[in-house]
Amino acid sequence: MTKNITLKIKEKMPAIVIILFLAAAFLVVGFLFGRKSGSTGHSNPSDRIVHNDGDEHETHEGEDEHGDVVKLSEQELEEFGIEIGTAGPGKLQLHTSLPGEIRVNQDNSAHIVPRVPGIVQEVKKKLGDFVRKGDLLAVIESRELADAKADYLADLERFASAQSNFTREKNLWEKKISSEQEYINAKQGIAEAQIELRSAEQKLHSLGFTEDYLKELPNMSDVSFTRYEITAPFVGTIVSKHITVGEVVGDESEIFIISDLSTVWVDLSVYQKDLAYIQPGQTATISARHGIPEIKGEISYVGQVVGEQTRTALARIVIPNPQELYRPGIFVTANVAVGEIDVPLLVPQSALQTVDGKTCVFIQDEEGFEPQPVELGRANEAYVEVKSGLAAGQRYVTKGAFTLKAQLSKESFGDGHGH
Q1: In terms of C-beta density within 10 A (0-12 exposed, 13-18 middle, 19 or more buried), how is residue 138 classed?
Q2: CB–CB of 67/356 below 8 Å?
């Protein structure tokens, strides 16, 4: 039985060997075909580098070595607006940002208060109106004003009478007709009348009446005695109004606020950590956003007291506002230049791009432009210090680096390398 089995195995051996040989051959062919297909899928024939020895392996190594290099012609550099500079030292301006608010310039604002109490007869201006010096704002009917004018006219008559009496007594005394005592009494009377007249006159002056007005007062009608006209003290805009016809106003009622908005205050909040760096005379760039242009100004005042609630001090900038774009109440941010330092390598922020999750600059060499990872240090909104990754004297892209990044991304998706 054993002999028969052995004979059968020997008879089948050639067939088994043939089957194993064919299976091995298929595996080898499949492996070689897979390598060829994989190589073709990652290479564009037009981009292959051909070496003199024709070594396919060396060709792919050369391509991987320069796979992140972008080549552009001089014409393309100009077309894309790409600018190239040389890495080197520079001065880095240090800044700090402070929150703030635009406010009315109180040095150019007037709180209009009637100088006499009375009843409002007319209101000539409304909120937001632009006014010039002397423009009529409102008319008040005031009994107190009528009394003041009447007292002035009475004192004016009394002074005229005393003056006439003094002239007469002086002539009589000089002619030895009247006694010296009568002359002295007349002289004293004119002095007292003059004092009372001056007092009444000053009272009307304090109410805003001019000398020319007082000269015309004796010829005015009784109706004008109670009329008190409130006028604008200077050119400005009515930013507050609290007056209506028929209401009673006192001599402490704030009925208008007029502000000259051609300049405004920018009040900044200075935190304790920044107090040592903020000084009068420093320049700040003020940003209000929302379509309002930035403007530069100089700090004119830094408060000496820190607020108990806010824990901040006040810093103030006065800025021109001829077009009234900077409206009181708008919140702003001020970027204050607090000094500058020398750094070994300084590049513009426009040179930085993120490539494969790393911050890079594009350096220029014989092959083209290649992203170079860098380590950054101190910075402001325009420039940044490079601590490592870039050497002094290296050529790098200062403007237009985003275009190179876009070209690099395009190539990574199979559109071809730029070299």
Answers
A1: buried
A2: no
Q: Which of 168, 116, 104 is nearest to 141 (CA)?
A: 116
Compute the distance between CA of residue 318 and CA of residue 328 in angstroms, rounded to an integer.
12
CA distances from 45 to 41, 42, 50, 53, 157 (A): 10, 10, 10, 18, 117
Confidence (pTM): 0.60
Phi-psi region for residue 202, left (φ > 0), alpha (ψ -120 to 50) or beta?
A: alpha
258 touches 237 (CB < 8 A): yes
Same domain (yes/no): 307, 350: no
CA 402 to chain centre: 28
Is the pLDDT confidence value at 14 over 80? Answer: no
* Nearest partner of 376 among 362, 390, 365, 396, judged by Cα: 390
Average pLDDT over residues 129-136: 96
Q: Tokens in use for 80?
A: 């894309």
Domain CATH number, residue 224 = 2.40.50.100
Query: How large is the angle between the packed helices 143-174 and 180-206, nearest 10 degrees?
Result: 160
Mean pLDDT of 339-362: 93
Burial 211-232 (b: 16+ CB within 10 A, else e): eeebeebeeeeeeebbbbebeb
334: nearest Cα among 259, 262, 265, 260: 265
Question: How far apart, in Å, are the Cα atoms of 189 and each of 161, 185, 261, 292?
Answer: 9, 6, 53, 69
Per cent of the chain over pLDDT 90 is 51
- Angstrom CA distances, 175 to 155, 162, 168, 182, stand at 30, 20, 11, 13
CATH code of the domain in which 314 resides: 2.40.30.170
Clarify whether residues 311 and 240 are in a common domain. Answer: no
Q: Answer yes or no: is pLDDT of 354 > 60.
A: yes
Q: At 173, which helix (H) or strand (E)?
A: helix 143-174
Instruction: State how many domains the chain has.
Output: 4
Gap between the Cα atoms of 343 and 340, Å rounded = 10
Alpha-carbon span 160 to 157, nearest angstrom? 5
Q: What is the residue range of 302's domain?
A: 97-105+261-341
Which residue, chain included where needed, has tokens 């009637």?
114
- DSSP 8-state class, residue 70: B
Please tell me the distance from the alpha carbon of residue 192 to that of residue 166, in angstroms, as a whole number.
12
